Amino acid sequence: MSNNIVILGAGVSGLTTAYLLSQDPANKVTVLAKHMPGDYDIEYASPWAGANYMPVGKKGSPHQAWETATWAPLKELCEKNPDAGIHFQDTLIYNRKKDQGTAAGNWFAELVQPNPWYMNVVPDFKTLPQSELRSDMDNGQKFTSVCINTAIYLPWLIGQCVKNGAVFKREVFKHIADAANAHHTGQKADVVINCTGLSSKTLGGVLDDKLFPVRGQIVVVRNDPGEMVSVSGTDDGEDEVTYIMTRAAGGGTIIGGCCQENNSDPLPDPNLATRIMKRAIDICPKLVKPGQGIEGLDIIRHGVGLRPYRRGGPRIEKDEVDGVKIVHNYGHGGFGYQASFGCSEETVRLVKEVLQSKPRSKL
Ligand SMILES: Cc1cc2nc3c(=O)[nH]c(=O)nc-3n(C[C@H](O)[C@H](O)[C@H](O)COP(=O)(O)OP(=O)(O)OC[C@H]3O[C@@H](n4cnc5c(N)ncnc54)[C@H](O)[C@@H]3O)c2cc1C
Ligand SMILES: *[C@@H]1O[C@H](CO)[C@@H](O)[C@H](O)[C@H]1NC(C)=O
Ligand SMILES: *[C@@H]1O[C@H](CO)[C@@H](O)[C@H](O)[C@H]1NC(C)=O
C-alpha cells in the first residue's frame, strides 16, 4: 500500500522531513513551496542561517531532546557525506554574567552555562581555564561542533529526495484543501505536513498568533579565522550578539548578529553591520591581519533573515481541517538546523500514526 504525502515548505524543516519520509518506498512524497533553495527572500529563513550547532534548548524540555537527537545525524553527514556541505569546527563560547536576563542572554542561557547538558553530546568538551579567558569574560568552553553551508546542504537534501522519488513543485497555497489536492499522483493526499515557517500575513490563511519574527542581520566575508566563536552579549544593545562561523567548502564566514524581536525590516542596517564587524574582530582578532580593523574584512554580502519563533516552542502536532489530516512542523526560531532531525523524526512518528488510522482500501 502506498501513502500519498504532501509537504508544504522547502526550508530545512520541510526538506529534512521529506528526506526521512522519502527513504520508505511506500511513501509518495510531493514537496510544494513558494520558495526553494537558491532563492534569497525575507519570507524564507533557511538560506540565511549560519548555520551551526550551538544547543540552546532548556534542560529537560522537548527542545533539548530534539537538539540531542540531531547531533548524531549531523555528525554522520560530516563523516560520510562530505558532499552535503557540513564540516567540523573548533567552537569557543564565552559568557559574561552581566548579559543574564537580556534578549541575547536569554537566547544563549543554556549554551553558556558552565557544565551544560550538551557537554556529553558534542565531542571534545572542555571548560576554559581562567588563564585562557579575557578579563571581561566570566566563563567559557570549547568543543567540536559543525557548520553547515546552507547553499550546499539544502540542494543536497533535495537531490537525496529526488533520488528517492519525491517530486518538487513551486506553488503558493491559501487553503489547506488545495494543498491536499496537489499531490503529484493526482490522488488526494493522505496527509499534509505544514512546514511553512513564519509564513506571512500576505500569504493568507490564519496566522498562528504565537508566531513572531526575530530578525537576524549578518555579514558574509571571505576571511577565515579557523574556528567558531560566540559571546553571550554585547555592550552595544541588549538584542545584539556576536558570533562567527565558517561554512564548509568555500562558503565564506558568517558574522552576526542580532535578535531583534518583532522587527521584519528586510534591509541590512549599515550601522549595525559596522558594529557586528567591529565586535567580531575584537573577540576574534584572527579574522583579519595583525593591526587591521574592519577594512581588513573582505565582504561578500550583507544579509537579513527572520527566525520563525513561536511562543511556547515549535508546533509539532496532528491536526485536521476540513477533513484533511495535517501534521504541523513549524516555529523553529533560531535553531531550525540544530534541531532539524529531532523535529523531523517526531513529525515522521506523527505521520505514521495518521497513516495507520487511514481507511484501508477494499482491494
Ligand atoms: C541570521 C540567521 C541565522 C541563523 N543561524 C542558525 C544556526 O546557526 N543554526 C540553526 O540551527 N538555525 C539558525 N537559524 C534559524 C533557522 O534558519 C530557522 O530555524 C530555519 O531556517 C527555519 O526553517 P523552516 O523550514 O521552518 O522555515 P523556512 O526556511 O522559512 O521555510 C518555509 C518554507 O515554506 C514555504 N511557504 C510558506 N508559506 C507558504 C505557502 N502558503 N504556500 C507555499 N509555500 C509556503 C516557503 O516558501 C519556504 O519554502 C538562523 C536564522 C537566521 C535568520
Ligand atoms: C500552517 O501554519 C501556518 C502558520 O505558520 C498557518 O497560517 C497555515 O494555515 C497552516 N497551514 C496548514 C496547511 O495547516
Ligand atoms: C513580539 O510579539 C510576540 C507575539 O505577538 C509577543 O509575545 C512578544 O512579547 C513581542 N516581543 C516584543 C519584544 O515586543
Which descriptors would you attach to this protein?
single chain; 363 residues; alpha/beta; D-Amino Acid Oxidase, Chain A, domain 2; nine-stranded mixed β-sheet; six-stranded mixed β-sheet; 15 strands; 23% helix; binds flavin-adenine dinucleotide; binds 2-acetamido-2-deoxy-beta-D-glucopyranose
Descriptive report:
One of its GO terms (cellular component) is peroxisomal matrix. It comes from Penicillium angulare. FAD binds at residue 196. Its cofactor is FAD. By secondary structure, the chain is α/β, with parallel strands linked by helices. The protein has a single domain (3-356), classed as D-Amino Acid Oxidase, Chain A, domain 2 (2-Layer Sandwich), CATH 3.30.9. Helix content is 23%, strand content 27%. The chain has helices at 12-21, 62-80, 103-107, 150-163, 176-180, 270-283, 340-356, and strands at residues 3-8, 27-33, 86-95, 126-127, 139-148, 167-170, 191-194, 211-221, 228-231, 240-246, 253-258, 260-261, 299-310, 315-321, 324-330. A hairpin with a 6-residue loop joins strand 10 (240-246) and strand 11 (253-258). The longest helix is centred in the first third of the chain and has 19 residues, at 62-80. One 2-acetamido-2-deoxy-beta-D-glucopyranose binds at residues 8, 176, 179, 192, 194, 196, 199, 205-208, 211, 326, 330.
Calculate the mean pLDDT score and round it: 95
Structural class: alpha/beta
Q: How many runs of DSSP E, i.e. beta strands?
A: 15
Q: How many DSSP helices?
A: 7
What pattern of helices and strands is seen along the backbone? EHEHEHEEHEHEEEEEEHEEEH
- Reported by name, the CATH topology is D-Amino Acid Oxidase, Chain A, domain 2
Bound molecules: flavin-adenine dinucleotide, 2-acetamido-2-deoxy-beta-D-glucopyranose
| Overall helicity | 10-25%
Report the span from N to C terminus: 10 Å
- Characterize the overall form: elongated
CATH architecture type: 2-Layer Sandwich
Q: Mind telling me the CATH class?
A: Alpha Beta
Strand content: 25-35%
> What is the H level of CATH, i.e. the homologous superfamily?
D-Amino Acid Oxidase, subunit A, domain 2
Largest sheet: 9 strands, mixed
Low-confidence stretches: none
Number of domains: 1
Binding site for FAD: 196
Family: Belongs to the DAMOX/DASOX family.
GO molecular function, one term: D-amino-acid oxidase activity
Enzyme class: oxidoreductase
